[in-house]
Sequence to fold (311 residues):
Amino acid sequence: MLATDPEGYLINLDDWSTEAANTLAQSAGIELTEAHWEVLFLLREFYTEYGISPATRPFVKAVALKLGKEKGNSVYLMTLFPESPAKLAAKLAGLPKPTNCM
Amino acid sequence: MHFAFLLRHPPYSKQHAREGLEAALAAAAFGQEVSLYFMGDGVLQLLPDQKATQLAAKDTSRMLQALDMYDIENVYVDRTSLQARGIAEDALAIKCTAVDSRQIRQQLATAQQVFCF
Amino acid sequence: MLHIINKATPDASLEQCLALIDPQQDAVLLVADGVLSALASYAYWPRGLAVFVLSRDIEARAINAYLAPHIQIIDDAGFVALTEQHTQSISW
Fold:
């Protein structure tokens, strides 16, 4: 059993694994594909580098820088992580909720 | 909207430094124009090679590296505060423009809101 | 610019505030512990600078007789007027 807060974010960031991500994705009704994974790993790198979960704009910018413009846009990220990509992707990547994100 | 943030506290002194940066990042994330002014002990936030883990604290200097990602380009440091602490302008962890109080005063006058941390 | 100060001396905020003040245009409002920096013996705030204190903060501390002569005492209506005169404010 993964310990999560009421919103579904991991309480202990060290609990994250690809299995944990799959479990978290299932409860969000998402099947993780290659396209998801590259974004999740990128997010985890972002967190290691800057110590924060990015809000939408920097999230999109980081994806554009690393994976190219055709992926670094909110439409593409919205198809992978519906509704609120920055929040959902952070959740599946085992990161804290983006603090500067409504 | 142009929001100016005065960052006046040293790192790891309560949560001031972190809260100031988080507020600035949040404003930028909402597409506001943000300018940062490091002054007083706040200039110490800019020193490279901080080891926050020694204090089990969150590393605010890493957040500074994210300013680019948040499109925060207007980063200023008070020259007098640097000099008073014997810190050279080129010894800082991120690129910022050294300014004097008069320049800060003039620039703050163009901001819609000034936040003090 | 209206500079609002709520801390007692000595505090870095006061120095930093002084460094950024434009004496021609700006005003200072001292509230809560900030009023203590208005004592005449400190000679902290330069003459010619518009410095205001809230009357209730002065009365509560019974320091009226000790204030520097150029400090102006205002009530809540005066406070509101002050914020209307200055489009910007900084809470130090």
